[in-house]
Amino acid sequence: MAVLLICSAASINAQDKASIHKIVNRFHLDGDASWDYLAIDETENAAYISHGNIVQIMDLKDGKLLGTISGLNGVHGIAIAKDLNKGFISSGRDSSVTVFELKTLKVLTKIQVTGKNPDAILYDPFSHLVFTFNGRTANTTVIDAKTNLVKATIALDGKPEFAVTDLKGRIFVNIEDKNMINVINVNTLKVEKHWSIAPGDEPSGLALDNENHRLFSVCGNKMMVVTDAETGKQITNLPIGDRTDGVAFDPVKKQAYSSNGDGTITVVKEENKDKFVVTETIITQKGARTIAINTKTQHLYLPTAEFNPVPEPTTENPKPRAGVKPGSFVILDIDIK
Protein backbone atom coordinates (compact mmCIF):
# COMPACT_ATOMS: atom_id res chain seq x y z
CA MET A 1 0.00 0.00 0.00
CA ALA A 2 2.85 2.41 0.82
CA VAL A 3 4.32 1.90 -2.64
CA LEU A 4 1.00 2.72 -4.28
CA LEU A 5 0.66 5.91 -2.26
CA ILE A 6 4.15 7.04 -3.24
CA CYS A 7 3.43 6.34 -6.91
CA SER A 8 0.18 8.29 -6.74
CA ALA A 9 1.89 11.30 -5.18
CA ALA A 10 4.62 11.21 -7.80
CA SER A 11 1.97 10.97 -10.51
CA ILE A 12 0.10 14.03 -9.28
CA ASN A 13 3.32 16.04 -8.98
CA ALA A 14 4.35 15.00 -12.50
CA GLN A 15 1.12 16.39 -13.89
CA ASP A 16 2.10 19.84 -12.59
CA LYS A 17 5.43 19.84 -14.47
CA ALA A 18 5.90 21.59 -17.78
CA SER A 19 5.39 19.38 -20.81
CA ILE A 20 8.56 18.09 -22.46
CA HIS A 21 6.89 17.09 -25.71
CA LYS A 22 4.79 19.36 -27.90
CA ILE A 23 2.81 19.39 -31.13
CA VAL A 24 5.25 19.69 -34.07
CA ASN A 25 2.68 19.68 -36.90
CA ARG A 26 -1.03 20.27 -37.42
CA PHE A 27 -2.04 18.58 -40.66
CA HIS A 28 -5.35 19.95 -41.99
CA LEU A 29 -7.71 17.66 -43.90
CA ASP A 30 -10.94 18.57 -45.67
CA GLY A 31 -14.29 17.60 -44.19
CA ASP A 32 -16.35 18.53 -41.15
CA ALA A 33 -17.74 15.12 -40.18
CA SER A 34 -17.03 13.25 -36.96
CA TRP A 35 -14.03 10.95 -36.52
CA ASP A 36 -12.97 7.91 -34.50
CA TYR A 37 -9.92 5.65 -34.80
CA LEU A 38 -6.90 6.02 -37.03
CA ALA A 39 -4.36 3.38 -38.08
CA ILE A 40 -0.68 3.77 -38.99
CA ASP A 41 1.11 1.97 -41.82
CA GLU A 42 4.66 2.21 -40.45
CA THR A 43 6.25 0.82 -43.62
CA GLU A 44 4.75 3.57 -45.78
CA ASN A 45 4.71 6.20 -42.99
CA ALA A 46 1.04 6.84 -43.75
CA ALA A 47 -2.13 7.17 -41.69
CA TYR A 48 -5.60 5.81 -42.43
CA ILE A 49 -8.07 8.17 -40.79
CA SER A 50 -11.78 7.57 -40.12
CA HIS A 51 -13.76 10.68 -41.02
CA GLY A 52 -17.53 10.41 -41.23
CA ASN A 53 -18.34 8.28 -44.27
CA ILE A 54 -14.82 8.22 -45.70
CA VAL A 55 -11.32 7.08 -44.87
CA GLN A 56 -8.56 9.55 -45.71
CA ILE A 57 -5.02 8.33 -46.31
CA MET A 58 -2.38 10.87 -45.32
CA ASP A 59 1.39 11.03 -45.80
CA LEU A 60 2.86 11.50 -42.34
CA LYS A 61 5.94 13.33 -43.63
CA ASP A 62 4.07 16.38 -44.91
CA GLY A 63 0.35 15.82 -44.31
CA LYS A 64 -0.38 15.39 -48.02
CA LEU A 65 -3.60 13.57 -48.84
CA LEU A 66 -2.65 10.35 -50.66
CA GLY A 67 -6.14 9.08 -51.33
CA THR A 68 -9.70 8.65 -50.09
CA ILE A 69 -11.94 5.61 -49.71
CA SER A 70 -15.58 6.66 -49.97
CA GLY A 71 -18.99 5.00 -50.12
CA LEU A 72 -18.81 4.02 -46.45
CA ASN A 73 -21.45 4.43 -43.76
CA GLY A 74 -20.27 5.71 -40.39
CA VAL A 75 -16.61 4.68 -40.19
CA HIS A 76 -15.18 3.58 -36.86
CA GLY A 77 -11.86 1.82 -37.41
CA ILE A 78 -9.32 0.55 -39.90
CA ALA A 79 -7.23 -2.62 -39.65
CA ILE A 80 -4.15 -3.08 -41.84
CA ALA A 81 -2.99 -6.50 -43.04
CA LYS A 82 0.37 -5.71 -44.65
CA ASP A 83 1.18 -9.36 -45.36
CA LEU A 84 -2.01 -9.69 -47.43
CA ASN A 85 -1.98 -6.20 -49.02
CA LYS A 86 -5.43 -5.59 -47.55
CA GLY A 87 -7.20 -3.15 -45.31
CA PHE A 88 -10.48 -3.63 -43.44
CA ILE A 89 -12.84 -0.78 -42.46
CA SER A 90 -15.65 -1.10 -39.91
CA SER A 91 -18.81 0.90 -40.61
CA GLY A 92 -21.24 1.13 -37.72
CA ARG A 93 -24.36 2.47 -39.40
CA ASP A 94 -24.81 -0.45 -41.79
CA SER A 95 -22.88 -3.04 -39.71
CA SER A 96 -20.39 -3.85 -42.43
CA VAL A 97 -16.69 -4.27 -43.14
CA THR A 98 -15.24 -2.89 -46.37
CA VAL A 99 -12.17 -4.70 -47.68
CA PHE A 100 -9.72 -2.75 -49.85
CA GLU A 101 -6.32 -3.21 -51.47
CA LEU A 102 -3.56 -1.25 -49.75
CA LYS A 103 -1.49 -0.46 -52.84
CA THR A 104 -4.33 0.81 -55.05
CA LEU A 105 -7.03 1.62 -52.44
CA LYS A 106 -9.43 -0.35 -54.66
CA VAL A 107 -12.47 -1.68 -52.78
CA LEU A 108 -12.51 -5.48 -53.07
CA THR A 109 -15.71 -6.42 -51.28
CA LYS A 110 -18.13 -5.54 -48.51
CA ILE A 111 -18.89 -7.99 -45.71
CA GLN A 112 -21.99 -7.96 -43.52
CA VAL A 113 -20.99 -8.68 -39.92
CA THR A 114 -22.92 -10.94 -37.54
CA GLY A 115 -23.70 -8.17 -35.07
CA LYS A 116 -24.66 -4.51 -34.91
CA ASN A 117 -22.45 -1.43 -34.92
CA PRO A 118 -18.95 -2.86 -35.46
CA ASP A 119 -16.66 -0.37 -33.75
CA ALA A 120 -13.05 -1.33 -33.06
CA ILE A 121 -11.51 -3.69 -35.61
CA LEU A 122 -8.31 -5.75 -35.34
CA TYR A 123 -6.19 -7.80 -37.72
CA ASP A 124 -4.23 -10.62 -36.06
CA PRO A 125 -1.19 -11.63 -38.18
CA PHE A 126 -0.73 -14.81 -36.12
CA SER A 127 -4.05 -16.31 -37.23
CA HIS A 128 -4.73 -14.17 -40.33
CA LEU A 129 -8.10 -13.34 -38.85
CA VAL A 130 -9.94 -10.02 -38.55
CA PHE A 131 -12.05 -9.35 -35.47
CA THR A 132 -14.81 -6.74 -35.40
CA PHE A 133 -16.08 -5.68 -31.99
CA ASN A 134 -19.80 -5.09 -32.29
CA GLY A 135 -20.95 -2.51 -29.77
CA ARG A 136 -24.70 -3.09 -29.80
CA THR A 137 -24.69 -6.89 -29.73
CA ALA A 138 -21.85 -7.71 -27.30
CA ASN A 139 -20.05 -9.98 -29.72
CA THR A 140 -17.22 -10.15 -32.21
CA THR A 141 -17.41 -11.24 -35.84
CA VAL A 142 -14.40 -13.26 -36.99
CA ILE A 143 -13.43 -12.88 -40.65
CA ASP A 144 -10.89 -14.97 -42.55
CA ALA A 145 -8.64 -12.21 -43.92
CA LYS A 146 -7.46 -14.39 -46.82
CA THR A 147 -10.90 -15.37 -48.13
CA ASN A 148 -12.96 -12.41 -46.79
CA LEU A 149 -15.49 -14.90 -45.42
CA VAL A 150 -17.10 -14.80 -41.95
CA LYS A 151 -15.67 -17.67 -39.94
CA ALA A 152 -17.33 -17.36 -36.53
CA THR A 153 -19.19 -15.21 -34.04
CA ILE A 154 -17.92 -15.00 -30.47
CA ALA A 155 -20.18 -13.90 -27.61
CA LEU A 156 -18.55 -11.44 -25.21
CA ASP A 157 -19.40 -10.49 -21.64
CA GLY A 158 -20.65 -7.03 -22.61
CA LYS A 159 -20.04 -4.02 -24.85
CA PRO A 160 -16.60 -4.30 -26.46
CA GLU A 161 -14.23 -1.42 -27.01
CA PHE A 162 -10.60 -1.47 -28.22
CA ALA A 163 -8.63 -4.72 -28.63
CA VAL A 164 -5.00 -5.82 -29.02
CA THR A 165 -3.20 -9.04 -29.98
CA ASP A 166 -0.17 -10.67 -28.35
CA LEU A 167 0.74 -12.17 -31.77
CA LYS A 168 0.84 -15.61 -30.15
CA GLY A 169 -2.80 -16.67 -30.15
CA ARG A 170 -4.58 -14.36 -27.73
CA ILE A 171 -6.75 -11.29 -28.30
CA PHE A 172 -7.49 -8.92 -25.40
CA VAL A 173 -10.56 -6.66 -25.52
CA ASN A 174 -11.91 -4.11 -23.05
CA ILE A 175 -15.54 -4.68 -22.01
CA GLU A 176 -16.82 -1.19 -21.31
CA ASP A 177 -20.05 -1.84 -19.42
CA LYS A 178 -18.64 -4.63 -17.23
CA ASN A 179 -15.26 -3.07 -16.35
CA MET A 180 -13.31 -6.07 -17.47
CA ILE A 181 -11.05 -7.59 -20.11
CA ASN A 182 -12.06 -10.61 -22.17
CA VAL A 183 -9.29 -12.86 -23.50
CA ILE A 184 -10.05 -14.64 -26.77
CA ASN A 185 -8.22 -17.79 -27.86
CA VAL A 186 -7.75 -17.51 -31.64
CA ASN A 187 -7.46 -21.29 -32.02
CA THR A 188 -10.72 -22.19 -30.28
CA LEU A 189 -12.40 -18.83 -31.07
CA LYS A 190 -13.78 -18.66 -27.57
CA VAL A 191 -13.40 -16.32 -24.60
CA GLU A 192 -11.12 -18.18 -22.21
CA LYS A 193 -10.49 -15.55 -19.51
CA HIS A 194 -12.58 -12.84 -17.82
CA TRP A 195 -10.50 -10.32 -15.87
CA SER A 196 -11.91 -7.53 -13.75
CA ILE A 197 -10.18 -4.14 -13.96
CA ALA A 198 -12.17 -2.47 -11.16
CA PRO A 199 -11.88 0.21 -9.85
CA GLY A 200 -11.40 1.23 -13.49
CA ASP A 201 -14.79 2.23 -14.88
CA GLU A 202 -15.88 2.22 -18.55
CA PRO A 203 -12.59 1.13 -20.15
CA SER A 204 -12.16 2.22 -23.78
CA GLY A 205 -8.60 2.37 -25.17
CA LEU A 206 -6.24 -0.58 -24.71
CA ALA A 207 -2.51 -1.00 -25.37
CA LEU A 208 -0.02 -3.82 -24.75
CA ASP A 209 3.64 -4.08 -23.80
CA ASN A 210 4.20 -7.48 -25.36
CA GLU A 211 7.71 -7.84 -23.93
CA ASN A 212 6.75 -7.42 -20.28
CA HIS A 213 3.17 -8.65 -20.75
CA ARG A 214 1.43 -5.55 -19.46
CA LEU A 215 -1.97 -4.29 -20.60
CA PHE A 216 -2.96 -0.61 -20.29
CA SER A 217 -6.70 0.09 -20.08
CA VAL A 218 -7.79 3.74 -20.03
CA CYS A 219 -11.09 4.36 -18.30
CA GLY A 220 -13.87 6.92 -18.14
CA ASN A 221 -13.25 7.66 -14.46
CA LYS A 222 -9.85 9.23 -15.28
CA MET A 223 -7.87 6.11 -14.49
CA MET A 224 -5.36 3.90 -16.31
CA VAL A 225 -5.37 0.30 -15.11
CA VAL A 226 -2.27 -1.84 -15.68
CA THR A 227 -2.93 -5.59 -15.89
CA ASP A 228 -0.62 -8.62 -16.16
CA ALA A 229 -1.44 -10.06 -19.61
CA GLU A 230 -0.42 -13.55 -18.50
CA THR A 231 -2.28 -13.88 -15.20
CA GLY A 232 -4.91 -11.12 -15.22
CA LYS A 233 -3.53 -9.74 -11.96
CA GLN A 234 -3.95 -5.99 -11.61
CA ILE A 235 -0.52 -4.37 -11.18
CA THR A 236 -1.59 -0.79 -10.39
CA ASN A 237 -3.79 2.11 -11.48
CA LEU A 238 -2.81 5.69 -12.22
CA PRO A 239 -4.57 9.06 -12.72
CA ILE A 240 -5.09 10.30 -16.29
CA GLY A 241 -7.02 13.12 -17.96
CA ASP A 242 -10.74 13.32 -18.64
CA ARG A 243 -12.75 11.92 -21.58
CA THR A 244 -10.13 9.46 -22.72
CA ASP A 245 -10.82 7.10 -25.63
CA GLY A 246 -7.40 5.83 -26.64
CA VAL A 247 -3.95 4.78 -25.49
CA ALA A 248 -0.71 3.93 -27.30
CA PHE A 249 2.45 2.21 -26.08
CA ASP A 250 6.01 3.03 -27.16
CA PRO A 251 8.16 -0.12 -26.81
CA VAL A 252 11.36 1.91 -27.23
CA LYS A 253 10.85 4.35 -24.35
CA LYS A 254 8.55 1.99 -22.43
CA GLN A 255 5.85 4.62 -22.08
CA ALA A 256 2.06 4.55 -22.42
CA TYR A 257 0.21 7.60 -23.74
CA SER A 258 -3.43 8.18 -22.78
CA SER A 259 -5.22 10.52 -25.21
CA ASN A 260 -7.77 12.58 -23.30
CA GLY A 261 -10.60 14.54 -24.88
CA ASP A 262 -9.98 17.36 -22.40
CA GLY A 263 -6.98 18.36 -24.52
CA THR A 264 -4.15 16.44 -22.87
CA ILE A 265 -2.05 13.29 -23.14
CA THR A 266 -1.07 11.59 -19.89
CA VAL A 267 2.37 9.97 -20.14
CA VAL A 268 2.97 6.88 -17.99
CA LYS A 269 6.51 5.55 -17.69
CA GLU A 270 7.12 1.82 -17.17
CA GLU A 271 10.18 1.93 -14.92
CA ASN A 272 10.08 -1.84 -14.64
CA LYS A 273 7.35 -4.41 -15.19
CA ASP A 274 5.83 -3.70 -11.79
CA LYS A 275 6.45 0.04 -11.34
CA PHE A 276 4.64 2.76 -13.28
CA VAL A 277 4.57 6.53 -12.77
CA VAL A 278 2.96 9.51 -14.50
CA THR A 279 5.84 11.62 -15.81
CA GLU A 280 4.25 14.27 -18.02
CA THR A 281 1.06 15.86 -19.26
CA ILE A 282 1.29 16.90 -22.92
CA ILE A 283 -1.05 19.71 -23.98
CA THR A 284 -2.91 18.79 -27.19
CA GLN A 285 -6.32 20.16 -28.20
CA LYS A 286 -9.86 19.64 -27.00
CA GLY A 287 -11.48 16.61 -28.64
CA ALA A 288 -8.20 14.76 -29.32
CA ARG A 289 -9.38 11.56 -27.67
CA THR A 290 -8.11 8.83 -30.04
CA ILE A 291 -4.47 8.13 -30.78
CA ALA A 292 -2.05 6.08 -32.87
CA ILE A 293 1.71 5.70 -32.75
CA ASN A 294 4.39 5.15 -35.37
CA THR A 295 6.90 3.15 -33.34
CA LYS A 296 9.56 3.48 -36.05
CA THR A 297 9.61 7.29 -36.09
CA GLN A 298 8.30 7.69 -32.51
CA HIS A 299 5.55 10.12 -33.38
CA LEU A 300 2.00 10.22 -31.98
CA TYR A 301 -1.01 11.20 -34.11
CA LEU A 302 -4.39 12.42 -32.85
CA PRO A 303 -7.41 13.65 -34.86
CA THR A 304 -9.51 16.55 -33.62
CA ALA A 305 -11.14 19.84 -34.64
CA GLU A 306 -12.31 23.14 -33.20
CA PHE A 307 -15.82 23.34 -31.77
CA ASN A 308 -18.65 25.85 -31.73
CA PRO A 309 -20.23 26.78 -28.38
CA VAL A 310 -22.65 24.20 -26.97
CA PRO A 311 -26.24 25.20 -27.80
CA GLU A 312 -28.79 25.79 -25.07
CA PRO A 313 -30.77 22.64 -24.11
CA THR A 314 -34.26 22.29 -25.52
CA THR A 315 -37.14 19.91 -24.94
CA GLU A 316 -36.33 18.16 -28.21
CA ASN A 317 -32.58 18.10 -27.47
CA PRO A 318 -31.96 18.21 -23.70
CA LYS A 319 -28.26 17.30 -24.07
CA PRO A 320 -26.98 19.23 -27.09
CA ARG A 321 -23.42 18.75 -28.33
CA ALA A 322 -21.04 21.31 -29.72
CA GLY A 323 -20.75 21.25 -33.51
CA VAL A 324 -17.45 21.24 -35.38
CA LYS A 325 -16.24 24.52 -36.84
CA PRO A 326 -16.07 24.18 -40.63
CA GLY A 327 -12.58 23.62 -42.05
CA SER A 328 -10.95 22.97 -38.67
CA PHE A 329 -10.31 19.18 -38.81
CA VAL A 330 -6.65 18.38 -38.11
CA ILE A 331 -4.27 15.56 -37.30
CA LEU A 332 -1.95 16.55 -34.47
CA ASP A 333 1.65 15.30 -34.81
CA ILE A 334 3.69 14.94 -31.62
CA ASP A 335 7.37 13.96 -31.64
CA ILE A 336 8.14 11.77 -28.59
CA LYS A 337 11.77 10.96 -29.36
Describe the protein in words:
Helices cover 4% and strands 53% of the residues. The chain contains one helix and 28 strands. The protein has one helix spanning 2-15; strands at residues 23-28, 35-41, 46-51, 54-59, 65-69, 75-81, 86-91, 96-101, 107-112, 118-124, 129-134, 139-144, 149-155, 160-165, 170-175, 180-185, 190-196, 203-209, 214-219, 223-228, 234-239, 244-250, 255-260, 264-272, 275-283, 292-294, 299-304, 330-335. The strands form seven sheets. A four-stranded antiparallel beta sheet has the order 1-28-27-26, with no helix packed on it. The model is unreliable at 1-16 (pLDDT under 50).
The Rg value, from CA coordinates, equals 19 Å
Largest sheet: 4 strands, antiparallel
The unreliable regions are: 1-16
Averaged pLDDT: 94
Shape: globular
- Share of residues in helices: under 10%
Order of helices and strands: HEEEEEEEEEEEEEEEEEEEEEEEEEEEE
Q: Which oligomerization state do the chains in this entry correspond to?
A: single chain
Span of the ends, CA to CA: 33 Å
Give the helix/strand class: mainly beta
Number of helices: 1
Task: Give me the count of strands.
Answer: 28
Strand content: over 45%
Strand order of the largest sheet: 1-28-27-26
